[in-house]
Write a structure and sequence with these properties.
flat, mainly alpha, disordered C terminus, 12% strand, 54% helix, 130 residues
């Protein structure tokens, strides 16, 4: 799943909200190409196939949440940093990369966002500092 980088010094909150509403892809908000926050708009209604996909993703979602909590990093940020070779290779990171890749591919295939999964499953997202 690819996103759009937004320089946080060049956008107002209102512009960010409007960009999120218009985009099907996540917005990576930060400075100089380093995302600090991932922003996604949430649709109100999901079709039955999307709901089934979310239920099927629940175990994978719990797994990536575990990685996020352990490493205090959002999976989208991890993925960006890992793909940019900013993190050392380790068995844990490879497992996280595989889990997040499968999760993101499933989201894309079913036209879902992570926020929709979190809302449907009743979980709040991980917040990360700058």
């Amino acid at each position: 799943m690819q996103g759009i980088f937004v320089d946080k010094t060049k956008v107002t909150v209102e512009e960010l909200i409007e960009k999120a509403r218009k985009s099907q892809r996540p917005l990576y908000l930060g400075l100089a190409g380093q995302p600090e926050v991932v922003v996604q708009a949430v649709r109100k209604e999901l079709d039955p196939e999307q709901k089934r996909a979310i239920r099927a993703l629940s175990g994978l979602y719990r797994k990536i949440r575990g990685f996020e909590e352990k490493h205090r990093m959002d999976s989208a940020e991890f993925f960006y940093r890992y793909e940019s070779n900013a993190l050392e290779e380790s068995p844990t990171y490879v497992s996280w990369w595989i889990a997040y890749s499968a999760f993101a591919d499933t989201l894309q295939r079913h036209n879902l966002t992570r926020n929709e999964v979190e809302c449907y499953l009743g979980n709040s997202p991980i917040t990360t500092g700058g």
